[in-house]
Design goal:
This protein is of the alpha/beta class. Helices cover about 30% and strands about 15% of the residues.
């Protein structure tokens, strides 16, 4: 066995081996498991965990879940009311959806033929058709959705939830982001900003890496065995114990807990994301048997495993260079391909969660950063521009009113019209599902109190079952 290092050598070498990602995701040992943010007297805690399915690029609401017969009827005509004063790009006349819509389930909700498998889950879904934001650019809109701000560095919603509720597994981070995009805000979208960095998201791979190859960076110490690391940790704990009389006990104890967490993650992370023992039936359910859906299906199955192991907030991003929903042109070809990549995995995920009894206390969210215009863009009349003024998201599980639709856009799907829901309202409602009053979940920094919803936000009580 190697000779013991002195303390300075150990700190320099072992931290690099165990890795930055592991350390910042360490246990909230004395944290918020039973904190005051869970206000049972105001918002009953319906969800214990959150799964966020992020469709980067902006899916078209009028081609997926928001059926607009008037749009088809007036195809090719000018929009009969004013377009926004600030637009991302110039658009032309109205463009009918290339896809047919049909009613599904007892609720009879219309779903496009792009999503035949998700359509079968429609009675478990709650659609919000009146989402709206303020910024038509990807970067600002993505940041707004993730952090509540489109121009400042703020904690992401996963970090706020980690701060508010803590962790359910001492061997895993409370917030994991699977294959996140490195563009349009990058690490800010899973960062903790001024919150303690133990609450920031732990990225597994990124959008440029195939999910089956996605790993947590620097998770393994290649130079020392687990036995050697165990001995080293015990030794540094012994050395630190000598400083108790000097008043360093609490800080040194927390430091040791950080090292211990990083040590445990070397085995807990690979074990949680290992899909080898999943049955062929389960893999098929998630679409792993098809080339078109294998990547996103792998992410979804990995997400279910992390949720099972007690991770509080898991994000799955559908992105990559050739898998974004940003169709300024080639709408018919590319939106069809994007939908085929995620339709079976999402349906399989919902089915699996329901069969395991996990959907009862897991809040599933499907959303992009904005929607698309009902007016046409592109020289071939086969594209739609960015539209933050009215778009659709849906939720499932954890006390959501299934088979229900809230809010509407206008008859062409351009503007949120009835019961508009701002991004701040969405965040306030998300926290309420977790039993948290968004006005109480604050953090004092730089002379003022901050919260996810800033000074805004209205809880949409109508979507609670």
């Amino acid at each position: 066995m190697k000779e013991f290092w002195n303390r300075r050598q150990f700190m320099r070498n072992s931290i690099m081996g165990l890795g930055y990602s592991a350390l910042v995701s360490s246990l909230i040992a004395n944290g918020n498991r039973n904190n005051s943010f869970v206000r049972a007297n105001r918002y009953r805690q319906r969800a214990k965990r959150v799964l966020f399915l992020f469709m980067k690029g902006g899916p078209s609401q009028v081609d997926t879940f928001d059926f607009k017969p008037k749009l088809n009827y007036d195809h090719g005509k000018p929009l009969p009311f004013a377009k926004p004063k600030v637009q991302f790009a110039k658009t032309g006349n109205l463009l009918a959806s290339p896809w047919k819509f049909s009613r599904y389930g007892e609720s009879g909700h219309y779903v496009s033929e792009l999503f035949p498998n998700v359509a079968r889950q429609v009675d478990d879904l709650c659609f919000i058709h009146s989402m709206h934001g303020t910024n038509p650019a990807h970067g600002a809109a993505v940041l707004k959705l993730h952090t509540g701000s489109d121009n400042f560095i703020r904690p992401s919603m996963g970090a706020w939830i980690s701060y508010g509720l803590g962790t359910e597994n001492q061997n895993l981070p409370s917030f994991i982001s699977i294959c996140p995009t490195l563009a349009h805000g990058g690490a800010q979208n899973w960062g903790s900003a001024f919150l303690p960095n133990i609450h920031q998201g732990c990225p597994i791979g990124n959008a440029s890496i195939e999910p089956k190859n996605a790993r947590l960076g620097h998770i393994l110490n290649k130079s020392d065995s687990m036995i050697q690391q165990r001995v080293q940790l015990d030794f540094i704990n012994f050395l630190n114990g000598r400083f108790n009389a000097k008043g360093y006990e609490s800080r040194l104890k927390q430091r040791i807990q950080d090292f211990e967490m990083a040590f445990r993650m070397q085995t807990s992370i690979p074990m949680a994301q290992d899909l080898k023992n999943e049955s062929k039936t389960t893999k098929k359910l998630y679409g792993l048997d098809q080339d078109i859906s294998e990547n996103f299906g792998t992410q979804c199955l990995m997400a279910r495993r992390f949720l099972e192991h007690g991770v509080r907030f898991v994000q799955v991003t559908h992105s990559a260079l050739k898998a974004q929903w940003d169709q300024h042109g080639n709408l018919r070809r590319d939106h069809a391909e994007r939908a085929a990549q995620v339709d079976q995995p999402i349906s399989g995920l919902l089915t699996d969660l329901k069969q395991r009894g996990m959907l009862e206390d897991t809040l599933v969210i499907w959303a992009g950063e904005f929607g698309r215009t009902p007016t046409v863009q592109g020289p071939k009349f086969d594209g739609r521009d960015h539209n933050p003024h009215g778009f659709t998201i849906w939720l499932a599980g954890a006390g959501v009113k299934g088979g229900f639709s809230y809010g509407t856009t206008d008859e062409y799907g351009y503007y949120a019209e009835e019961n508009p829901v701002h991004v701040h309202d969405f965040h306030a409602t998300l926290l309420a599902f977790l039993g948290i009053d968004h006005e109480d979940l604050t953090y004092h920094f730089a002379g003022r109190d901050f919260r996810l919803t800033d000074v805004h936000g209205r809880v949409i009580n109508e979507i609670f079952a």
